[in-house]
Predict the 3D structure of the following.
Amino acid sequence: MSTNDAGSGATGRPLWHGRFGAGPSEELLAFTVSLPYDRRLAVDDLAGSRAHVNMLNKVGLLTAEERAIIVAALDRAEEELAAGSFSFAPTDEDIHTAIERRVTELAGATGAKLHTGRSRNDQIALDLRLFLRREGRELVARIDQLQRVLVHRAEEAEDTYVPGYTHLQRAQPVLLAHHLLAHVWALTRDFDRWRDALARADVSPLGAGALAGSSLPLDPDRVADELGFAKRFDNSLDAVSDRDFVAEALFVLALTQVHLSRLGEEVVLWSSEEFGFLHLADEYSTGSSMLPQKKNPDIAELARGKAGRVIGQLTGFLATLKGLPLSYNRDLQEDKEPLFDAMDTCALTLSAMTGLLATCTFDRERMQAAADTASSSATDLAEELVRRGMPFREAHGIVGSLVRHSHERGVPLDELVMTEPSLGPEALVFLEPGAAVLRRTSPGGAGPGPVAEQLEIVKARLVAQRAWLES
Ligand code: ARG
């Protein structure tokens, strides 16, 4: 490519050709180009341009005829982009340049009025906010799908119980439904964080120009309104340099991915032979190229592994932002790849985990057998002593020493309970299989009563989520 033909107007000149004697070098173009990834913003860029020319017409900067010519050229560019027939020029640095070049080719001197009162600085800030609104909602819908599957599995689980763990040591039995719903609650907070982040991002930056607004009679409120934003920017410097909305989205994505990673880790553990609580469907597990017996939880492992990647996108982008003076700096172009990658990674993980959890089978016998060890009733024995009037600390000591003696002397706990004067034979009911979980009766607890209530609350929440997604 000759250095002189570099640029992007219909004439093959760069957007800034007036000020420059020579065109950009190949190295500059190769280094600064963002088209390979910002093409993804084409629909947003077109929507922003339509609103912009409509506004230019309303304020008298474009005649109705000029507006119509430009809109027709934008429509044509859109068709070409959709059909894959849009031919990009080697000098198309980004999607804004490419579309403006094509509009100018199609509409000549009128097309050259498209960029009146606009800078790529407010344009890209607008495009990315439109993108986030568009794809953000799709991502939230996937969170909702996963929640629905987990809630469905929780309802199906009925009275199945499983050991509850702290420190990955068996602690007290809990309903499987309770365990699954714990993950649902984490996802409800992710859902809410998205809702908040999208509300804060709901500001149109168009009309800020390069950084300071314009001497032309622009009407940013009109553009904001036409594009369905809640409001326009208040400060032009902030409008072109603010990427909080990207950082926030990355944080919500990172935290969602962390939640998926924790869920993934449990699937890995539970599907192991050591636990054996969960069996993966063939369609959602992988085999080994060498070991014929293997069935591997690769989806769950990648859900866990990809958390590192999304966390990296967040921290990397915060580092990009941290030293930037006002207002626009080209560093900000580094906002798109992390955001796109994190969105795609999280979206794929959500779908894969949804499929995995919809199709796996829970091994009720293995779970309950693991939960029915005598010592998992230890707290209930201590609480029985409390009911009989003993201070909890003393009760804890008595039961703790029974457990210790049981381990040290190899005597079953029920024999020791029977002969312990403060407990005796009537305390044996606490050691019966499945008894412990039935006693988790306090609000928000792990037993059938509170879990039934919790399910109602979660289901009402899902109805409200659906309403928001459809709004
Ligand atoms: N590709 C650029 C970006 O993503 C568009 C804005 C370019 N602005 C500029 N002054 N060079 O940020």
Notes: Residues 1-11 have pLDDT under 50 and may be disordered. Residues 120-157 form the longest helix (38 residues). DSSP finds 18 helices and six strands in the chain.
